[in-house]
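Late entry, evening session. Most of the bench is empty. Finally got around to the prediction I had been postponing all week. Sequence below, unchanged from the version circulated by S.P.
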Amino acid sequence: MADFAELRRRMVERQLRSRGIRDQRVLAAMAEIPRELFVPDDQRARAYEDEPVPIGFGQTISQPYMVALMAQALELRGSERVLEVGAGSGYHAAVLGALAREVIALEVVPELVLRAQQNLEKAGRGQNVRVIWADGSQGYPELSPYDAISVAAAAPEIPAALLAQLADPGRMVIPVGSGWDQELRLVCKREGRITQRIVTFCRFVPLRSGGGLTQQ
């Protein structure tokens, strides 16, 4: 049987710390959260590989380094309300939940909404994370504004709805681009001014629409 605790330790040291992840809170969260609980049973042996892992429905759980890089870019300190777009299996939401006060995680695939919430509960991470069936490109205005927004799917351009729901000051990380030609951008809002910079280049599944209803 795999020693997941040891695999998790190696992930943090070899995939994160050695590549420049310096936020100690991010490193501690990813050293603690059992990533193996957020992948399908038949993929569990791959939970700590240095690449995305399929979770069904054409979706993936992001590469550990990308999860850490996005979380680090948000500079969370523990008091924030965070919107996550593309909850998938719930792993990224679990990491954000360890770093922020509250996480609202949106997922357009109904089957993944239930699975993500169950995974979060199994991992002991459900207390401050709420998974909602919704069209992530439209955000979730009912609970806005959000101090930080993390988008785990690529859009051809930054959705206006998400920008409108970002607090001032606020930070958003989002992959922008079509096909496999994408940029992970950090978008900052301060005193009404929007600035952007490229964090890295990336490959994410496309941002999907279609969650016509919300489910709580």
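Two things to note before I forget:
DSSP finds six helices and nine strands in the chain.
Residues 4-202 form a domain with the Rossmann fold fold (CATH 3.40.50.150).
Will write this up properly tomorrow.
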